[in-house]
Design brief:
It comes from Croceicoccus naphthovorans. GO terms for molecular function: ATP binding; ligase activity, forming carbon-nitrogen bonds; zinc ion binding. Helices cover about 35% and strands about 10% of the residues. With about 230 residues, the protein is of the alpha/beta class. The chain has one domain: 3-Layer(aba) Sandwich (Rossmann fold), CATH 3.40.50. The chain has a five-stranded parallel sheet with strand order 3-2-1-4-5, sandwiched between helices. Strand 1 (about 5-10), helix 1 and strand 2 form a beta-alpha-beta unit. Helix 1 (about 15-25) crosses helix 6 (about 170-180). The longest helix has 16 residues, at about 100-115. The relative contact order is 0.17.
Length: about 230
């Protein structure tokens, strides 16, 4: 499909949700610019997935931005805290990275303004997720208003749109979207605590949600798991 000249910046973590979000943006005809933030996360394996996905989607530019959040800590993904393996609970888990999506969207907005893009895509989800507050629709709505107030482009009357196309989809629906978009889910990575042999643990919240989504969608996850 020929791309239009309308630019979008996609926050591409390398996970299933961000891959599908990028695929939706491509389907809508945007010229894609992908931003991947290497925040020294425990599951840095997803960085390689982001690179693979960016190539598959033929993005115009893939920017890998280093940002060492281990200097802050406060999360099982950026500190010496065990990743929980007991199942998805109701409380905000220790895998929550303090204000991560706020920080990441701010960086995405900065790049978008710099290259003249007015559309930003992020793969947050408010249904099948681990209770992170920065995945909620009200956060996305508030950030869009913040983008207007915080930028030169906004002050000059240009509107930024924060697209969260997976916001109200369950994980099974997201899996189905991947196949509809002809995207290989095996390119993506979700596990918070990869095994030394390169397999996914199968027990962390992210693995459990992903596996449940594939099962509900009646598809087999091509990613290798140590336990399911």
């Amino acid at each position: 499909m020929e791309k239009s000249q309308k630019k979008a910046v996609v926050l591409l973590s390398g996970g299933l949700d961000s891959m599908v979000t990028a695929g939706i943006a491509r389907e809508k005809g945007y010229a894609l610019n992908a931003l991947t933030i290497d925040y020294n996360q425990r599951h840095a394996r997803e960085i390689q997935s982001a690179k693979t996905i960016a190539v598959a989607l033929e993005v115009d530019r893939h920017l890998l931005l280093p940002l060492d959040l281990r200097a802050f800590g406060g999360s099982a993904l950026t500190d010496s805290i065990d990743v929980p393996k007991g199942g998805v609970g109701n409380d905000i888990p220790v895998t929550y990275v303090p204000a991560r999506n706020l920080v990441f969207l701010s960086l995405t907005l900065s790049w978008a303004e710099a290259i003249g893009a007015r559309d930003i895509f992020i793969g947050v989800n408010a249904l099948d997720y681990s209770g992170y507050p920065d995945c909620r629709p009200e956060f996305i709505e508030a950030f869009q208003e913040l983008a207007r107030l915080a930028t030169k482009a906004g002050a000059e009357g240009h509107q930024f749109t924060i697209h969260a196309p997976l916001q109200h989809l369950g994980k099974a629906e997201i899996v189905k979207e991947a196949y509809r978009l002809d995207l290989d889910p095996g390119m993506s990575w979700s596990c918070y605590d990869p095994e030394l042999d390169g397999s996914a643990c199968g027990l962390c919240d992210s693995c459990r949600l992903r596996l449940a989504g594939f099962a509900a969608a009646q598809h087999t996850d091509p990613v290798s798991y140590r336990q399911t």
